[in-house]
Structure formats: structure tokens, C-alpha cells
Amino acid sequence: MHVQLFIPCFVDQLYPETGMNMVKVLEKQGCTVSYNAKQTCCGQPGFNAGYWEEAKSVAEKFLKDFEGDGFIVAPSGSCTGYVRNYYEKMFDNSADHNRSNNVRRRMYEFTEFLTDVLKVEDIGASLSGKATYHDACGALRECGIKSGPRKLLSKVKGLELVEMKEAETCCGFGGTFAVKYEPISIGMAQTKVMSALETGAQYMISTDVSCMMHLQGYIREMNYPITTMHIADVLASGW
């Protein structure tokens, strides 16, 4: 099965190992993975900041970069949700309407692709310790992803998965929200981290590195005994 990779900005610039681990997992499942080195952003940051025309220009390039057939897989529910839910409105009644629909139909978040398309749950990963899962807003609210990541993590050898009370609560990042409303953003991170600590977990795992970056910053500042991990890094562990 052929897969085109979309590597979001945060992964490309700050967590490239997460992208490499996603490739590692996909290739282990028999996928042929390709990467268009000319790809850039999906346009979400500009759109969320209110620069809709500029975001549309970036999105037009995204459509060109991912022309063709085959699945498009990204290690981000946020970017996946944006492409699926907002490209339709952005390109409605335009020359790119059909091309947009084609890309939206082929776009999948990484864990969703594993569980819903490849129909796999046990990747053969192993990681010792206790972990809790954070439902990133983009994955949960825009893609409807909830049980899939938990099924994948439940099959990781040596990993005990426990639920925290605030699993579905936003971490407070929200892109520019964390910059514009820093005190509120930090308060939301505190709520999330304290909920995770109450479980006794050593790891807080999610589908989006942006959430993990934000939470890890707060954890580091407070010197708490917990570490954030992207689920691709977990699933690539131990083999």
C-alpha cells in the first residue's frame, strides 16, 4: 500500500524523530512510504489567526503537493482535521473544489490510518511503565479519534495504560492562543498535568506534538516526574 507523508511544521522543525518513527511503523506494516520534499504547511496557523486569504494560498500549494492517488498520512490530528473540515469551505465553488475533495478524502491521521485502514492494533512495540492518554482537540473534536490510540497503546508490551480525569480537556496550547492568552494557557496546562500526575503515570501520550511540547514546557518548569511522548515514538519503541 502506497502512503504519502505529510509532515507538519512542528514535527519538521522541532521533532523530526517523530516523523521518522512514523515511517518506521508504517514500513513495518508493509506500506511503501514516499515524501514530497517540496511540501510545506497546510495553512492552519494563518487560518486560525484570521489570515484566510493567505491561508488559502498555502492550501493551494498543499493541494498541488499531494495530487494523485493513495493515502496521505500525518502524525497530527490537528492538521488532518483542518484539511478535512475547512478545505471544503475554503475551496467551495472554486476551480480547486474537486481537487480539494480528493485530498480531503485521502487524508488520515497516523493512528486512525493504522486502526481504520490497515486494521492493525498490535504493532509489536514495548515500553515499560505506566502511561495516560491525552485526547488532543484536533484528533478528538475534528476527526472523532478516541478509541483507536487507546487500542494501540493497550497492545504495547510492558505499558500499563490508565485514564486520567481530564483526558478530553484542552491542554491550553491552541497555537497562537498560548501566546495571546498566556496565563489562561498555563492554567489549562496545569489542570491537564495535575490530572495526569494523579494517575501515577510516567508518560503522557498523545497524537499531536504541539500539545506535547506545550505540556512538556510546563512539566519542565515545575520539575514534575512525568514525560510527554507522541504515540508514533511509543509505537516505534522496543523493536
Could you characterize what this model shows?
- The longest helix is centred in the last third of the chain and has 17 residues, at 182-198.
- The chain contains 13 helices and 8 strands.
- It has 2 domains: 2-116, Rossmann fold (3-Layer(aba) Sandwich), CATH 3.40.50; 122-235, Rossmann fold (3-Layer(aba) Sandwich).
- Helix 5 (77-90) packs across helix 8.
- It starts with a strand and ends with a helix.
- The mean pLDDT is 97.
- The protein has helices at 9-13, 16-28, 44-48, 52-65, 77-90, 97-106, 110-117, 137-143, 147-154, 177-180, 182-198, 209-222, 231-235; strands at residues 2-5, 32-34, 71-74, 107-109, 126-133, 157-162, 203-206, 227-230.
- It is globular, with a radius of gyration of 17 Å.
- The chain is of the alpha/beta class.
